[in-house]
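User: quick one
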Amino acid sequence: MSLPARRLTASLMLSGAIMPLNALPAVAQEATGQAPSLAAMVEAGSLPPVAERVGEEPEVVEPLNAIGTYGGDLRIGLRGSSDHNHILRVVGPQGLVRWDPQYTEIVPNVAERFEVEDGGRVFTFYLRDGMKWSDGEPFTADDVLFNIDDLVLNEEFAPTPPRYTSGGEPMQVEKVDDYTVRFTFKEPYGDFLAELASPLGQHPVLYAKHYCSQFLPTYNDNVDELIAKNEATDWQNLFLQKCGDLEIPARWGNPERPTLDPWVIKEPYVGGTTRVVLERNPYFWQIDTEGNQLPYIDQIVAPIDQDVESLILGVIGGRIDFGLRHIDPPANRPVLAENREKGDYHFFAAEPPGGSNMIINLNLTHKDPDLRELFNRKDFRVALSLGMDRQEIIDTVMLGEGEPWQHGPFEDHPYYHEQTAKQFLEHDPEQANALLDGLGLERGPDGVRQMPNGEPVRFQVDVIPTFDPVWVDALQLVEQQWAELGVDMEINPMERTFFYERTSNSNDHDAAVWNAKQSWVAGQIPQMLVPVHHDSRYGIAWRDWYLSGGESGEEPPASIKERLRLYDEARGMTDPEERRKTMLEIAQIAADEFEVIGVAKAIPTYGIVKNDLMNVPEKMPSSWYYATPSPTLPQTWFWKDE
Amino acid sequence: MLFAYIARRILWAIPFMFAVSLIAFALITAPPGDYLTSFAATLAQSGDIVDEARLDALRERYGFDQPFLVQYFHWIGGVLQGDFGISFEWQQPVGQLIWERMALSVTLALATLMFTWAVALPIGIYSAVRKYSVGDYFFTTIGFIGLATPNFLFALVLMYVAVVYFGSDVSGLFSEEYKDAPWSLAKIGDLAAHIWIPVIILGTSATASLVRIMRANLLDELYRPYVTTARAKGLSEFRLIMKYPVRIAINPFISTIGWAFPQLISGAVITAFVLSLPTSGPLMLQALLAQDMYLAGAFILLLCCLSIVGMLVSDILLAVIDPRIRFR
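Assistant: Done. Structure below.
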């Protein structure tokens, strides 16, 4: 199997660095085709003609297999509340740029093209002439300025996210003309385009100024009336109610809010609802190669099922046309495979971008000095790794799928680093015991080794059982395998919030389980190499030190400091080859230190798609940063005629 | 007499409500972390970065950094004015979220209660009168199965069978087209067509236990001298049983209405979850998990109110039905 992500060539990733990415001249394209319902409205005079709606420079998209036909609903299934990102993934983060379907390069999206200048400090985006919001109002540089200056950089609304700062200073945005905006950073920021392509990079074009500005006190003197009318607590709450934010349910809660998405909310995602419906955006700015306006599909319909079992039943019963999120654990595969004919669907492969399904982080900044001392001995960590029988775990709890792996990108990925991925994978209890003996950890009468202070070598591994059901099963085997080394590990399952509070916030954990599905490309955070993220559970105190600029947390050792420095450099680099080399340098240091213990390679999962749904790829990368499946362009999917 | 009694009961309920609301609020804020921790955990699960500065700013705006009592009085003060606060998760006023769901919950609870009584009373009477008959054993067996099977499991099995063998969908309370439609006669009809599934699922276990209670109580009464006397006086068997022993034996039914209300609403959470019912249960569960405290607090407060109202109803009905009860 060849993963698209594995073909990722670093040289393509930032090819926009020096030259404008879009080599084709910007030819005004005539849109001629449109959905019958919209044609009828044009006929009736209630909607402008399609060529006017898409503007002079719509994006021309070549559909995967065939030019589509209009009509039909796409039914997806939401799980309970807090599943708003499922909508985001299908409708897409329609940011200035996006990833191409293969996850190999960044292509223009809302912006018609872009330029990177001054060694990665200046980014210029050229917007599409005549492009419109979903209510027909023009989309211009003023909207981008409103988003950045009035909201992203407005401390009263929310603190500026780190992705819009560089060298400790927020970025500057200026309007060059109505359709050109320029972003300037203090220091080079090569990863900026990848940040914009991620689901959280949509800020610059999220809010329509003509609509959302009415909820800001700066623009509306009577905002208090609106606050009272909507029972909001303050203008910030009112704004979130009406215009949402990137990643909260309220983003899909207001049918009046103009968007740039292919489908816009019709039946909103609010607290009491049991289904969400989105209908086509009559002003959507993409057309196919024959001039037909996208999307092909009329509506996205998303009934809300409270739990995964009833989602699965929905798939089997044929109520769901496309599914990936929530249904893809290996355990569901047999029942879904068995009912393919009944449900009239087939599988597609969802491929992780690299890395590991399960890793164990020992807390190297533990509050208890004795455990900390122990965990910080590399020989101890190596012994634990050698004491694991990964093949047994894979055969027993992972249905035989996968292979032993520490973490990091796969073999055919340009970022592949062999030592990070493959050291200490063999099951060698003899050597493991020798290493533990070498540390002076004598076995007590009960067979459990003792630390110099006489306490047994005993620690808890925190884990969220509902996140990945395989984790607890695998830990039970690890528990037995480590017991043979004289190490007494206890499994400590807990609820999600409590886990997060205990590990990432309070640093109260001995050890914790997480996944490490990543390939270290721009836009992803290499949290298992450098402690810069709440998932870096081996060094939360070091992360605090890094994020606070040395004010809180704990000063890390030289090896970590060196990696943090290199990581900051890598983020600024615009030359892909240079960035790759720097990341591999970081990986080399991390591999020598061996802080993180992995179990098995992340294996592809699967999703289901109805047999009659066309233009859906047979495989797609599966990653939050890619926002599966939106870069495969669901707006080009269509229903085969009977 | 009766009115004074009711008035006194209602007055007593007020300080009780306050105590309960304080406990409810304390329980909701008891777990480590707050809504923002939970929010951050959700973001973490989707691979997102959580910016600590942003969380701290929100924490301050939501008032999570305030002492417990300040937060409590802020909340209860709002509630007294009909303002239940906002749901952090939905950024919506809690008031907008709860009423429709509560109404559906109460509808479901009442329907289940009626179903339970309609089935349990005749069967209980039959089982007592025809003790150790084939019918008695039959109903007893069915009853024990109903009691022993967890509701959510029954729901899952029913859903599986319906989807896999009959190709129909039994989840939810409405068909696709009525889900977000405004209320109309057609929508009510659609509700009636769907509600019997959760009613049967929820009703089975309660029915089983009520059958046993009815049977046992009635057996106690059936051999009392007054029954024999009445029979000797030539009263028809049916009239005799209904008029005297049943009237006494029904006492525990009435006195447990107060528990039945909140029990039906909170006890149905998992079943409602599995069946994706648009009732209060799933929303409350999610609010508790997310530590969305004003939303969770509103539900818990309403459940407490329902208990108190339920008790009141029980007491009044008991007083009306059972002549042995007198007010003082």
